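pinging the channel bc i need a second pair of eyes. not urgent but kinda urgent?? the chain im working w is below, pasted from the shared doc
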Amino acid sequence: MKRQRLWAAACVAMTAWLHAGETVRLKATADIWLSDCGDERNTSAGKCGQFKIKSIQEMAAIRFDATPAKGREVLKAALFLRRAGADMLRYIRVSTVNQDWEEGTSARPYGPASGATYCLADAATKRPWAWPGSMFCDVIMSSGYTLDTWAERKELADGWVSVALTPELIYALACGDTDGLAVMDGGNLAYHNNFIHSVQSRGNEPYIEVELGKPLADAPPKPAVKAEPAPDKAHLAAGALRLTIAEGKGVFCWRITLNGKPVERWRVKHPEPSGPTAIVLEDLTPSEKCDIEVVAVSPGGVASPAEKLSASASPALPAAPALAKLQPPRAVADLGPLAKARMYAWAAPPLVKISPELTMVSPEKPRAMFDDMETGEANAVWDGLTVRLFGARGETVSFQVCVVNGVAEPLRNVQIIPQELKNREGKMIAGKMIELFRNWYAKNGKGQWQPAYCVPLPTGAPFNIPDIVGGASAPREKNVGGASLPRVSNQQNQTVYVDIYVPKDASPGAYTGGFLVEADGVEPPLKLPVELTVYDFVLPDRLSFVPELNAYRIPPNAHDFYRLAHNHRCVLNCWTHRPRLTGTGKDIQVDWADYDRQVGPLLSGEAFENCRRAAAPVEALYLPFDDSWPTPLTKQTYNYQGHWPGRGEDKKFIIEHYMKAPYIGDALSQDYKDAFLAVQRQFIEHFRERGWDKTEMQCFYGGKNTHRIDWGSNMWWTTDEPYHWDDWLALQFFCQLWTKGRGEADRKLWASRGDISRPMWQGRVMHRILDCEYIGGFNDANAYRRCRILADDTGVDIRAYGGVSRDTESNTASVVMLLSMWANGANAHLPWQTLGDERALDDGDKAAGGGSALLIPGKRVNQTVLADMRLKAFRDGQQLIEYLVELGRRYNLNREQLKAMVHGAVAIETGRVAGAGADNADALVFGSLKAWQLAGLRRAIAELIVKKP
């Protein structure tokens, strides 16, 4: 018996030895050519004799007969492709495809939709690649739980190239865990058309060679599965189920059926490296009973016995409480036409732009420049007799006083004098809580005069209508010989912005007060009564949603700029504050003296001691790391010996770098890496010693390789909005260097950040590497879902970047923008450029150098910095979001429920400028709301909040 066992073991060993090293060929049986470019997205080319791979623009999927490799260990594998023309291939990316597709019958490039297109897995049946609206990118290259790899191509004879594949891709083919392999080019700035022979090109078809090892005949054990409702993943019309599968030996993938139907592969994770794997099945019928089968599959394709169990899906999310119906404003009485008078004064909503110029249609009622203020005597804050306001404790509430010159000659020495607000018990909101700002008129992008910048107006400080300026204060085009001229030649009125801060310790209830408006020759002074309702809840000093104002320079008197943003519940983030350094490599040392003086007060909160939000430190701040800091990139620190182009040179040198440079992690010197880690360590230790632990310090690589020839900067890679594969590899390397180097330091304080304009191509490339992502194009259902998947799968904090409402649009569009970003899952919004220069006082956003001039120097009007009205729109949007956060806390509602509640009350419209590229940060557009809708929404939410303390 012992001899028989030994003989059997020897036979098994000999069989394994005989099979080891055997090479088999997997033939291609079908392929498709897909394009993510404009109208080409809805075309097919399944029967074409070639396909094109071109960066992230055009790609292919190839189906193979993997029978020869089934049941065997894979030692080595390679994909072989034959070029159909000249190419610029270097890196080739390959992945599984987690949806079944149809090849179709289109035999020419960009033919009519037949079979699969970039938008559909099958055009005939309208089968999506994943969820409705998804695209091919959502089920390849690590998206949709696909397996992926990348490598440099190997040049072979007769136009053939090969690229190494991982064994996992072959196992996936052999056991039916994919429908073929997706193939993409790494790409470069040449955007070369790389044509490859397809299955239809006889004798030139793609194929895979696999070196096989021992047989894989063992079945994995029956999986241990727990199934339970997943209410945290439910939606308003759907329930969810969570499966937790215990770690099992020898499991390559799972096959899951739900009520007799296979669960699509893009929903099913592969096993975690260790420990249990949680799989959430969404979009289920609420509370339905689910019969589940889970089968474990080995790399050899051997299936385990099925684990069968039943569980109920969670209920759908309950609807949020209904908001009171929003009603347009009504005047308290029909006041009739105003008698001719020297001066009129009335109140307007805070964000409305009222034209300063004379109109003959209604001289006593100047026109709103956009359809955001109602016509007639009443508006969101004014019933014809009284200014009616409301707000929470810790909130700033606002309106505008519009003073109209009713006669031909100038109206001189106009003064607006606020009175304290008192409640019935005599408690006051003191005058120091009331701030006035004279609206400064600048020309917008259409050449129209409009209120733009808010110039502080001390109580009792006089102004004239029209505004007479001369000398250095005159508009540049009118400053002729220092003559005094009307700044707006046809100015009929002047608006004054009023901010009332409600102290956090104010008693809830009604307050009354008012404003006097005086001018030379006007007797008696005009009175504007004010009634303010204070609701019994408090807005927090620390922001639940961060309007983050990006700037590419540090302005003079920087703390004043930071304070102005802080007082508007925004965070200025300037690129970038850098400490001085001495030494190199691991011996490099940081000199903290200047840095602590400039940045320390922002981190401790001392810079904001007299601000409305107490001394809360800035929420976020850039770290100074970039490609040439702390160590400059040179041929000594970066081993690329090709030509280093400078400003104005040909981009062919950048393309050459794409094609020839070593992988970044291999090419950077050890001194370069040592200096990075040494400075990082000193930052973390210094901040710990100083007690600066309230600010997210962001390691952000914001470079573009085209800046080498456009601006003369050093960056070799596009790490800001990565596009080609080299760009992703560079961002991955830098951020991984940061995340590994920080050790046990809190990732919430020492965050790696990426700005990503194409999240559809990210998949799990940056998994465990990025802590926060600022997403471009965050304004459609697909972007929202992709980013939610990213957040769920990787734990990354999703934020948005873009612009603000243009100076030719209603300011309420900026409120809508912030509201939309938050409601759809973002935790911050970053306008990409917010600093302008003093020319903005005449030319508005034209003086921003791109972006929007939200903060500008105000030397002309004796101020260090001025805020555009849109900064107040950002403040109002942020405060409205705090209302929703508080409502969600009190009623246990998530953003999806709150979003539906808001959408049921007002229309939140989003869009994109036609033809704009993904990297155009100003391409997003948002509809405006009428001022009364915003006010009504705020009041309805406030009423719900106080109903449930």
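so The chain has 15 helices and 46 strands. and Residues 869-891 form the longest helix (23 residues). — does that match what u expected or am i reading it wrong
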